[in-house]
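Consider the tokenized backbone below.
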């Protein structure tokens, strides 16, 4: 029986993960099947519990990342700190190992685009916003401003991450909540990067000051592209970078987890795998 993997989420039909992962396993010479399965948060635990031993692991997308973290019997350090998991790997003794590859993926994509994260504005306060804040910290952010409608969620992010320090940093990062995007832009001081974690419809009507489009936008959205926010950014003459590089970079770390259990262990033929994954997008 072939080894099975899947990406879980709702909605899920738009996901490019099956083609990206399939490209990786072809290069690695692995006869693994990777599919997309629609699954809502209330049904995640039951779905996973009902999979047989041929199921090796799962990629987990919205809205399941917090629930995946709860289900996991063991977690990698990034999942522990972030409180979310986007990857589940079956453990030999039973249960699931949860990892967060979004942080590494987002950081790699921002670094690859040569963007400056010293003063980062994060739009949104959900699971992807958590990863954006931690990625910005890893990239040397001194300040992170959060613009989001959910006051309680944003306040929790400030409490959890303001004053924390990256392993290679000399000073702690400051995180501030400035209110919703319709009201908080005026308090943003000389931003170097905007990271949007908003879904397309939510970002379509986000208020933008005329000057902000001089700052590069990294938009975690990628389908469709340009997203409504990126289209507005570009129309104003600004630079908007799509989330496809993040999608590929975090998937590469997922492949590491699925093959070795270690998100930090490079793959055999990793450069060839990465090239194939990018081509699949």
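A designed sequence for it:
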């Amino acid at each position: 029986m072939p080894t099975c993997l899947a990406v879980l989420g709702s909605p899920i039909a738009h996901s490019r993960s099956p083609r990206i992962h399939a490209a990786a396993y072809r290069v690695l010479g692995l006869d693994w099947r990777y599919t997309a399965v629609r699954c809502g948060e209330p049904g995640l635990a039951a779905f996973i519990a009902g999979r047989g031993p041929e199921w090796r692991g799962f990629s987990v997308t919205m809205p399941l990342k917090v629930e995946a973290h709860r289900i996991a019997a063991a977690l990698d350090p990034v999942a522990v700190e972030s409180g979310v998991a986007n990857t589940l790997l079956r453990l030999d003794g039973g249960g699931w190992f949860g990892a967060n590859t979004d942080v590494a993926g987002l950081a790699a994509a921002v670094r690859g685009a040569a963007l400056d994260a010293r003063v980062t504005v994060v739009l949104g306060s959900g699971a992807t916003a958590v990863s954006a804040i931690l990625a910005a910290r890893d990239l040397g952010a001194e300040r992170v401003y959060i613009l989001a409608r959910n006051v309680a969620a944003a306040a929790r992010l400030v409490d959890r991450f303001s004053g924390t320090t990256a392993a290679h940093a000399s000073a702690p990062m400051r995180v501030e909540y400035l209110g919703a995007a319709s009201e908080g832009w005026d308090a943003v001081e000389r931003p170097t990067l905007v990271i949007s974690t908003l879904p397309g419809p939510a970002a379509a009507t986000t208020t933008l000051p005329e000057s902000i489009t001089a700052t590069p936008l990294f938009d975690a959205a990628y389908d469709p592209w340009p997203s409504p926010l990126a289209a507005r950014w570009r129309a104003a003459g600004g630079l908007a970078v799509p989330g496809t590089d993040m999608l590929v970079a975090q998937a590469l770390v997922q492949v590491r987890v699925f093959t070795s259990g270690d998100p930090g262990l490079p793959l055999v033929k990793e450069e060839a795998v990465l090239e194939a994954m990018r081509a699949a997008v």
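The longest helix spans residues 244-260.
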